[in-house]
Specification:
alpha+beta, 2 domains, two-stranded antiparallel ribbon, 15 helices
Length: about 425
């Protein structure tokens, strides 16, 4: 079974995003499959000529836009047309048959299609379930070429120029994926960022090892080589090899530890009967309105648990500085900066989708799946709160307890 382990809780609204993501993903896949199907048909029959040497089978533009009803809504599709002048012959799409307006069994199959669309061996099966038994007639060459389109998209993504981008914040996390065909499990090293306009974007998805400094350093060096400037702040779990790497590649980038990971790690070192009150106290500390209240909360926790549970307090206090870095940034951004939730929420969607699949057949398929899912998810992401302040942070504005300190105030101080 294809399994993705994502720490922390998923977005409670994830059900809604699955429908949106499925609808967009289905439309993109159908359009691409139609294009590849027609291209292969024309290529196979290009030598068919009449007595004057004219091609008998040619492309003929696109047909009228058709609305196809699927389980999560309606998608508009304009299918390419083929002019086949051979006697008794006519092109008939196996992907989207003529007059088809409603897809059978799509509610159960859409996640399957979206995931298995990157796996050559399973693509025909998924299309057959979605479009009927006739889709099994799709040739292996069509399936293989469609997969190559996705691989080309990923290659273009990981080689794109980043010199024109300024990322104010980045989140980093490692997501483990099981590989079905007996290979070593895949760990996806994922980096998301926030631009000066306040938009969230996928920066990198790579194969590596979560705790490996060299794996993360390789990713960061590549980003730097392609022109990416050092972000102002990075957010991630303390166990990542990312931190040693970022200090080497971007030494001026500030560090913020993920509170969700930290709370889970601290509670793991306490008896179950003490976990509810401890969790409540930790949430109070995390949501403290200023550094002073934050520090007082840390002292309360230490006084409460140090004597009997020193490992729990040590786990918390060793990162007390990097758990509070967010106070140096706009208060509007705090909810985004305390955790790696921007990464965990999209991958919670991936986790839900994989329950109906048998898993990625290879590391490459796993990478393609993650990339295409994140690419589609990105289209639905909203700007961060206080998006206009992202540019201020990039320009070097100073914030104390979330409030911007103006020049005259700094001089007076």
């Amino acid at each position: 079974m294809f399994k993705i382990t994502v720490r922390g809780k998923g977005n409670p609204e994830v059900g809604k995003s699955i429908d949106d993501l499925a609808r967009e993903g289905a439309r993109e896949m159908i359009v691409k499959a139609l294009e590849v199907e027609v291209e292969e048909y024309l290529s196979r029959l290009k030598e068919e000529r009449d007595e004057h040497g004219h091609a008998l089978v040619t492309g003929n533009g696109d047909g009228k836009e058709r609305t196809v009803l699927i389980g999560c809504g309606a998608v508009k599709i304009r299918a390419p047309r083929v002019d086949d002048r051979r006697p008794g012959k006519q092109f008939r799409s196996l992907v989207l048959p003529p007059y088809m307006r409603k897809s059978p069994n799509v509610t159960e199959v859409l996640p399957l299609l979206y995931l298995k669309g990157v796996s050559t061996g399973n693509f025909g099966e998924a299309l057959a379930a979605l479009f009927g038994e006739g889709a099994k007639g799709l040739s292996p060459s069509v399936i293989s070429r469609l997969k190559k389109v996705w691989e080309a998209d990923y290659e273009a993504f990981r080689k794109r120029d980043l010199s024109g981008k300024n990322y104010v914040y980045v989140w980093a996390d490692g997501v483990h994926v099981s590989i079905r065909l007996g290979e070593e499990n895949l760990c996806l090293l994922v980096i998301l960022g926030v631009t000066t306009e306040g938009d969230k974007e996928v920066i990198a998805i790579a194969d590596g090892y979560r705790e490996s400094t060299e794996s993360w350093a390789s990713v960061l060096r590549d980003l730097k080589r392609r022109g990416m400037k050092a972000p102002i702040l990075a957010v991630g779990d303390g166990a990542l090899g990312f931190w040693a790497a970022v200090r080497n590649v971007w030494p001026k980038t500030k560090e913020q530890r993920c509170w969700v990971h930290k709370i889970a790690n601290v509670l793991d070192k306490l008896p179950k009967r003490l976990q509810p009150p401890a969790k409540g106290l930790l949430h109070e500390i995390m949501n403290a309105p200023d550094r002073e209240t934050f520090s007082k909360g840390m002292k309360v926790f230490e006084a409460e648990y140090q004597a009997k549970y020193p490992k729990a307090t040590e786990c918390l206090l060793k990162d007390r500085t990097t758990l509070a870095t967010f106070y140096d940034f706009p208060a509007e951004h705090w909810k985004h900066l305390r955790t790696t939730n921007p990464i965990e929420s999209p991958f919670a969607t991936v986790k839900l989708r994989t329950r109906t699949t048998k898993g990625a057949g290879s590391r490459t398929a796993g990478l393609m799946m993650a990339f295409k899912l994140m690419e589609s998810a990105e289209k639905r992401w909203q700007k961060i709160r206080g998006a206009e302040l992202a540019a201020e942070v990039w320009r070097g504005a100073n914030f104390v307890d979330g409030v911007q300190i103006r020049c005259e105030e700094r001089i007076a101080a």
